[in-house]
Amino acid sequence: MVQAIPISDLTLRQVKEQFGLIQVDGDAIAEWQPPFPEPTDLEQQVLNRVQANFAYLSERTLAEGLVNMVVVSPLLDLAGFYQPPFDVDIEFEVSIPIQAEDEDQKLVKGRIDILVLKHRLWILIIESKRTRFDVMEALPQALAYMMGCPSRDRSLFGLATNGREFLFIHLKRDKVPSYSLSPIFSVTAPNHEIYAVLSILKRIGAALLT
How far apart are the C-alpha atoms of 49 and 53, rounded to whole Å? Predict the structure, then answer.
C-alpha cells in the first residue's frame, strides 16, 4: 500500500519523481528577461514605499499576514490583477504549515498561503514572524499544486515570495513536464529589483489573457 505524503512534507526530489518533472534553463522564458521598462512616477512612488515599509517592519517580529498586506498586495494592485478580467482566489484550504531552525537552532514556524489567478498563476506567500525562510521552501509545494491544477492550460506560472525575495516559476505540462526558475529578485536590493518584479507580473498578466 502506497503511503500518502502530506504536501507540506514533500521535498523537491519527491515532487520531481512523482510527476516526472525535469528542470530546464529559464533563459528562454521571455517574461523575466531584461531589459525591464521603467515604472511610471506613480508606480515608483508606490514601490519605493513598499520597500521602505518592509525594511521598517522587518526590523521587528512580523505578524503573520503582513507579507501579503505590505508587499504582495500592492504589487498585484499595480499589475492590474484586482481589475477585470482577473479574479483572485485565496486558497484557504491549502494553507501549508512550515517550520525550520534559525541560526540559534530555535524552531521557527510559519505557513505558506496560496493565491490563484485564473488557475494559471499560483502565488505562494511564506508568512512567518521572521523573514528567514528561504523562498525555495515553497518550490516543492508550488510545483505540486501547479501540476494538480484542473486548468487544461499547458503553460502555468508561479511566484514564491517571503516578502524579501521573489522567485518566478514557469511550468510546461507537456508529455515530459518541465519547469524553469527565474533569478531571485530582492525587495531590499539597492538597484530596485522590485521594479523588475512589477514588470514581470505585468508580462505574466498579459500572457494569461492570450
Answer: 6
For 191-197, the CB contacts below 8 A with 24+ separation are: 192/47, 192/48, 192/51, 194/47, 194/50, 194/51, 194/75, 195/36, 195/38, 195/39, 195/44, 195/47, 196/32, 196/34, 196/36, 197/75, 197/166
The pTM is what? 0.86
pLDDT tens, position by position, 190-200: 899 999 999 99
Find all residues with CB under 8 Å of 94, minimum gap 6, and list them.
7, 114, 145
Mean pLDDT of the chain: 83
The residue among 170, 154, 49, 67 whose CA lies nearest residue 114 is 67
From the list 62, 39, 47, 27, the residue with the least C-alpha distance to 188 is 47
pLDDT digits (tens, 9 = 90+) for 108-134: 455 667 787 877 898 888 766 555 678
Lowest average pLDDT, out of 36-50, 105-119, 182-196, goes to 105-119
- Ordered by start, the domain boundaries in the chain are 7-208
Residue 2 has pLDDT above 80, yes or no: no
Q: CA-to-CA distance for 210 and 195, rounded, in angstroms?
A: 24
Q: Hey, what's the cell of 141?
A: 509545494
The alpha-helical segments, DSSP class H, found in 96-192 are: 139-147
